[in-house]
Design brief:
69% of the residues lie in helices and 0% in strands. With 201 residues, the chain is mainly alpha-helical.
Length: 201
Amino acid sequence: MPLVESSLIVLMIWAVLGYLIGSIPFGVVVTKVMGLGNLREVGSGNIGATNVLRTGSKPAAIATLLLDGAKGAIVLLCARAFAGEDAAQVAALTAMIGHCYPVWLKFNGGKGVATFLGILLALAWPAGIAACVIWLIAAGLTRMSSMGGLAAAAASGILAVLSGHGTAYLLCTVLTMIVFWRHRANITRIRAGTEPKIGQK
């Protein structure tokens, strides 16, 4: 954890900004703009890129993936530039919470993997790249997006330490806990052998 050097007011401001930006439901916005219907009535009803892919539109899924990742990264980088590393990590955490529990959608949002990876890339880019590779390998081998996200999240804390960003370990641990909590239904299906494969409608 970085040294807390910012005032409580500054940290609170960035916490609120992080939450509000993180809570933008890009999956819902993208599918509506592209005329793909109500995402809440598609597949699992989740607002993430994996469910957007179930609309049959790869461009929409890619756009959602990039935008969900970008919002986490942008919040962190802005807080780091204008306040400091302590504010950056606070903003990153609340952006993740905002994505998973957005006030606009009655606190029922996404599962956080894209936002998590965006945060990690901005927080410690070597660890972020390694986590993305782990996601690709795990998802590719199992053909399950959830497995990729869980594997990447589980490795994030160690990756941060190995890349020389030990102060990010606590944040990575908390973000990992959020990812696992949001994937609890997926974990149950994985154990039961009923988890949908990538591209399956």
